[in-house]
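Aim 2 progress update. The chain analyzed this quarter is reproduced below.
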Amino acid sequence: MSLNILSQKKIRKMKAKWPKDSPEEYEELERTLMKKILQNKEENIKGTVRIIAGTAKNTQLAIPKNTRPLTDRLKTTIFDVLSSDIYKKTVLDLYAGTGSFGLEALSRGASSATFVDASKSAFKVLEQNVQKAGLENKALVIKEKVEDFLSNKDNLEETYDIIFLDPPYKKFSNRNITEIENILNMSKTMLPGFKVKNKKKFKGALILKHPRKYPVLDLELDRLLKIETYDFGLNAVSIYIVGDKNIA
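Predicted structure tokens:
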């Protein structure tokens, strides 16, 4: 029985079995139990992360369990690079988890954000985060595997100015890089630079969060130009735009 759904009746039954001859031991057991109950009060949450700038600044976003959230330092670096390019842009947040990237973008002036995640617990938390930030009118939350979303021809017809991907680390095999390669090659076709050839129009950006030692330079990504990779401890972020070859 999970601690977060223990009834008062069950708690009393548990306490009835505790030793009565030592008040100190009884109190210690009670403190330990209450600590565990509080830690497990919300089974889907493991902490919070904040929106760091914009209209929803300092909104605390819940982090679903088994999710690696974007740190303030990482988000600051990404949005410093994007700068004014985020304003009135459409965003696609794949493997969204907390929704930290897409919600940060909306807070900073993006016109809309679509969040895709297959996890049932992450989906619920993400919907709550969108509501808490007051950004429901600009957000679309989709509960679906990213691979299925990208395989849907109707979805591929859509255009997004900025695409952010934070795949689970189990997908980053150094021996077989084709899985990540395929995901990026499918995602890139939704960037405006692949839809309309217009030199004056913003061609789009694709941002990949990955393990620092992952061989991103070995990925075969036609017409995606890697402009920079930023390292953050064990993690890294590579930023791509529509282009011809890697320069970083």
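The longest helix spans residues 23-39. The longest strand covers residues 224-232. These observations will guide the mutagenesis experiments scheduled for the next reporting period.
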